[in-house]
Structures are given as C-alpha cells and as structure tokens.
C-alpha cells in the first residue's frame, strides 16, 4: 500500500478548504468531507481531537492508516450529519461503540479488515435498528463470533451491499435477507459454521454478486441461476451442492466472475457452459477435472475478457493452448499442480501480474517474453522439466517482481553473475532449490526487502559471502541453504529470522547460534564439533532444534528445559554426547519428539519424562542407558514411537499398571537389551492403536510437521530400513536379541494392523496359530529361538507377508503351502532339522510333496544384490507381496548395514528391473 502524506502539504494560516483531502460546503464554508486514507497516520484517535469539533462533517475516510490498535472514540456519535464513514484497515480494536448507531443518516459504513475489532449482538441490533438509510454495510473480518446471525433480519430495505467475510458467524442466516428489494451484493464467505437456505420459489432479486464460499448453505445451482437473472458474480467454493456433478451445472453464460473451487468436481470442464467473451474471473482450482484446455475456436477464447484464471490442483493434461498467451486482459494465471506438458510459449502482451505454472511436466527453455512482463509480481515455475540457461539480465526490467521460484528444474541453469545493481529491487521471495547453482546469486546484493531465500540442494561451496550478511537484515525470516557444500557460515545478522535450515553441508567448528527469535533451527548432518553451548537456551522461541548427525560432545545442557514453553522437536541423535539425560522436562511442556539415539548417554531415564504429555516420539536407542523397563511411560497418552534399542536395560517387562497403557503406540523397539522372563501378554492386549482395523483407511499422513518430519530405523535380518518419513499406519514390534522365554502370547494375534514383528534371538519355544490373524503383516522374524512346534498352517493365509525368517529353531513337520509360502526360499527355514517339504529338499514322505515341484514363477532367485559400499544382502527373504514395505515411496527408505549411506529405490530402480527380468525368464522356463 503506497502512502500519500496529504497532511504534510497543509499550511497554517491558509484556507483549509484548499487543503488536499478536505471538502467544504460551497455556500457555508463548513468542512463536510475529510479523506485521509493511505496517509500514514499513526497513533490513537484522541477523544479531545479537533476532529470532533467539525459538527457538519458528512464524509470521513480514515482507511489504511495505523491507529495503534486503539479503540473507536464514542464521540464518533456526535457527527449527526455523517453519511459515509470508512475506517477499513485502520488498526483499531475493542468493541464497536454503541454511539455509532446515533449516526442515523449513514448511507455507508465500512469497518472491515480490523480483525481485533469486535461487534456483539446488542450493539449490532441498535445499529441495524437506527441506521435505516444504510446502503452499504462492510464488516469483513470484524469479530462477530458472539453475534446471533438472526440479528441481521431487520436490515434496512434500502441496503444494496452487505459484506460479512470471515466474521466467525455461527448459526442460521435469516432467509429474509435474500428478499431485500435492493440488495445487489451479499458476501458471507469463510463463515464456516454459518448455515441457511436459499429461496426455492418466488425469488425475484436484483442480486448481482452472491458469495457463499466456505459456508454451510445447501446449493441448488440450477434453481439459483433460474431465479437470479441479474447475477454476474457467483462464489461457491467448497460448498454443499445439491445434486451430482455435472447435472447440477446450469448454463452460466451470464456470469462474469465464477468460483467453484474445492468441490471435488471431476470429468471434463464444461467449457460450453461458460461465456469467455463475458467471463473476467474463473476459479475451478482444487477439483478433479481432467482433459485438456480448450481450443480457441471452441469457445471464442480469442475474444476473451478474462482477467484471472485459476485451474490449479486438478488433473489437466496436454499442452497450453495459444489463447493463454494472447488474451490482452489476462492478469492472473494459475495452472499449478496439474499434468501439463510441452513448451511454455511466448506471451504476446505484458499484462500478466501473477504466473504460476509449477508442479507440471513442462519442458524446454524459459520463454524470452518473460523479460517483457513489466507488471509481473509472482513468477513460479518450479517442479517442471525446464532446460537451458537463464541470464540474470532477463529480470532486469521486472522492477515489480516480488517472488521468483524456479526450483526443481534439474536441467535449468541460472547465470547468477551480473554487474547490474538494480535487478529485482522489490524482491521478497527467491526460491532456487535444485537449480544447479555453484554460487549465491549476485543480484541479491540489492534485495534489501528479501523475506524468503531458498537455495537448498545446489552445489554452493566454501564460505557464505560477506555481502549476503547485509541483505534483508530487517526483513529476512526464512533461510534455507541445506544440501550444499558450505564449510563456514559465520554469524547470522538477521534479527527477524524465523526458519534457519543449514543441514547437510560441510560446516566445521563449533555450533553456530541462530538469532534470538528463530523458531526452527536445523544444522544436522554437518561436521560440527565441541559442546552444545548453554547460550542456546536463550532462544526462547525455538520450536524445533535439530543438531543430529554431527560430532558434538560433552553433556546435554540442562537449561534446555527452559525452552519447554515452545520447544516441540528436539533431535540430538548421532553425536558424541555423554553423561546422563538431564531432569529438564517441566510440567505443561509441548515436547512432541525427543531423539537422543546414537550417543554415549548413561544412567537411568529421568522420571520427569512423564511430564511430556504431548510426546509422540521417544528414541533413545544405541546408548548406555540402564535400569528396568520404565512402566510409567505407559501413561503418556500420545506416545506413538518408543525406541530403547541397544542399551543396558534389564529385568522383566511385566504387565501394565494403568487401565489404558500406551493407547497410541505404533512402533516399539526394545531389541538388543537384557530383558528376560515371559513376553507380557497383557502388555500386547492393550496396544489399541495396533488393533485398529480401519488404520489403513482415509488420508495418508506422516508424523511431524511441515518443516520437521520424524524418521525411524527398522531392523530386518541383518540390515536396517531407515524410514525417512513415518507414515502413521506403520506399526512394528521388535523385541529381538533379549532373553525372553516361553510362548509367544495369543494376544499378539489381535494386533491386526501390525506390519512387522521381530522376536528373533530369544529363547521362545512356541508360536500360536493366532499369528495367522495378522493379515497386514509384511515381515515376520522368529529366527534363533527354541521353537519346538509345527509351523501353524494359518500362516499360509498371510497374503501380505513379504519377508519370513523362521531359521535356527527346532521346528518340525511340513512347511505350509500356498500364497506367500510358495515364494520363500531355503534360508527362511534353515537350521530346523525337523522341517520338511518345499522349498527344502527333504520330503515329508506322505506323497503330498515329492520335492520335485517346479519353483513358482514369482520366486526371486538366490542372487546377491551388491551395493556400492560392498554390503551384500540376499534377497531370498523377499516374497512378491507388494504392500507397505514397497509402497512407502521413493526417497523415503534408506537401507543400511551400519549407518545410512544410500537412498533405496531398488524396488523401483535398477535392482527391481533385474528381479523382474529374472521373473520373466523364470516364467519362460516354467511355461
């Protein structure tokens, strides 16, 4: 917003009627109008201001100023002749004074966009009762959560415009509003709990603009269109439509502005129902539309008056039609998150203000016409396949550009060096992640207003240039330099920095400290040394502190407990920290994730952990912590992941002491400790989250938040899977490498959602048939025990089972046949001298298995997969079930033997292709 300081040109001793912003009555000389909008006014409006001596004032406009969140003086009620009052976006607060209702001649009242302003039912009723001449009432974003919508039922019949956008209204909107004889504009958008009904008959209204997006009104669109003959603007985003798409869509050729976003509409966009010669605004984003954009001749797009087009977040494909580049009126074009292909053409006009083509499949060079879009503010073409070189001078004429995002175009190169000093002077956001950069762009030298800078996943080496420390000193709040090769970064001068991500570089030396107001700080996967300085405890606004995978030593500062008012995620894993875990967890803390894995911590668990009522992830594996199993952990209501692997815990687990222990636990790893005794049947019986048969329904979710996501390592026969993003549906139990004895409890069979179970390397002697109830299980390891029973035939029903290891036991009898058991090889059963049948060469002697059956075509051959680090993994454990283990998605799995060394795409990559080729060859041999 540009300010024009009109009062600077007022001069004492001159006639005020000649001052800018002042209007006087030509007959009497009385001041009747004041317009000081956008004048940079600051501070409160004092009740003793000379403003209130202007009793003849009729029009007052103080919009777009900063009144320091002061209240509206009651003396505004003195302006008996006032017809127009505008205080929009003026930073006022408190309750609207009842004296405003004394302005009985008001024609227009605008208090909108003051979100700290409150209007309650008594004041609203008086206002509506007394302002009988009102034509315009604008209360957007005024807090009316305590107002009954029924209070609006007595609005003046002279009303032409009513705007109540995002007011927090709750309840039923009065029906009679829709019958007001002069109402032309009604806007109640974003009142999520506002309901009502539109008239079904005898509805004759001059309404030109109806805006009901994100409300609870049931919408009968054909009926609505048939009644509102004057309707030009229709906003129905995320509404409750009556009928099924597309039959609910009538002819919309009279409409000039249309919003049908977020309604789950599918199929082809009904272009024939739209009139592109009239339409100026079209928003069909966040639906499921398919197909291509129309040819110009099909709907006369060449004559379009379109100013704004949003089709983002659909399933559109094909190339961009020529009319996209030739509409002279087009200002805003949003086609992001589709499946569009082909080149980006040359724009014929310089009218574009916003351009977003991100997250498509576009390729080729960036069009040269971009350099002529002098009005452009937002340029976002990230996550495509653009190629070629981009010179910095392309942006030299784009003085209005606020945001540039060309990230994740792997074949695109940006020449960042320039001698120009005035490129992108207004730049606020620059995202060039994965853009083949080898240095920080030089044109940033003059970006004094820069707010967001993302240069992650590039090849930037060495030190941060000193000139960058002068950029955006007051404005920079987001800095992401992760996944580069930086060796030194110096200090951080940006006092308003909120997000600082410098993980996965080559930083050396002591831990650098971020600015005081930082909320997210990640410096993981560097080469930092020394201790964690106690000064870090002065960062009172930290929500996430990630110092993992460095070489930090000494003790954990106890003062970290001082951050409990804000700290949510604390990740110190894989360092060289020693000593005990401090007793630093105070009551009422917000800690969600605590990871101390892979250090040299000792002593017992601090009992103060019981205060972490919001804790979801507790990973203390690979330390020297001792003591018995901390049963008080079962009282943590949100705990989902508990990893105590490879410590010195001992004793029995025992039965739970609380009524609902571990109600949300999904992953528990107690492996490689010294626990003994029987497996606790009652413990497993209460793992409610693992019994949820609906766990795999609904939207896929991950643990963590936007900036920090939890990971976990899961062990399977000598190697680890590191899951970089934990899906909430992942449920595993690992009690391996302890000294448990006796039977595997029947209660295990009730954990229907279990994906992985590892009881290997114990002294267990019996497995129950109830294991056959684990219909979602994908890996099962009971090896190296003392199991003396037969393999339950029910295990053959586990069609999701991909990995099975029953080796090194005392099992007897025939191996079950069918489903996944037809895919397992000898190594799954070795070391059980009493077993017989396929795939072993030993037959059972009953005629059912002569050992000569051909190997099923789906069996993976016993070839070794050899990886770059020399580690061998025999894939003979794998069946061909394709479930969670192979559905996590590329980039989320890291297979490692000792530590994470490579991303595994093997199911989707070259190794998988080898397996598929071997399968195909096997089928050829068998058939």
Structural class: mainly beta
Helix coverage percent? under 10%
Q: Tell me how many strands there are.
A: 64
Count of DSSP-assigned helices: 7
CATH secondary-structure class of the domain at 616-922: Alpha Beta
Major sheet characteristics? 32 strands, mixed
Rough outline: globular
Subcellular location: Cell membrane
Main location: membrane
GO biological process, one term: post-embryonic development
Family: Belongs to the RLP family.
Protein architecture, described:
This protein is mainly beta and 927 residues long. Among the domains are: 244-328, Leucine-rich repeat, LRR (right-handed beta-alpha superhelix) (Alpha-Beta Horseshoe); 343-503, Ribonuclease Inhibitor (Leucine-rich repeat, LRR (right-handed beta-alpha superhelix), Alpha-Beta Horseshoe), CATH 3.80.10.10; 507-582 and 591-601, Alpha-Beta Horseshoe (Leucine-rich repeat, LRR (right-handed beta-alpha superhelix)), CATH 3.80.10; 616-922, Leucine-rich repeat, LRR (right-handed beta-alpha superhelix). Helix content is 6%, strand content 24%. It contains seven helices and 64 strands. The strands form ten sheets. It has a 32-stranded mixed β-sheet, with no helix packed on it. A ten-stranded parallel β-sheet has the order 37-39-41-43-45-47-49-51-55-57, with no helix packed on it. Strands 18-20-22-24-26-28-30 form a seven-stranded parallel β-sheet, with no helix packed on it. The longest helix is centred in the C-terminal third of the chain and has 17 residues, at 910-926. Mean pLDDT is 86; it is low at 850-927.
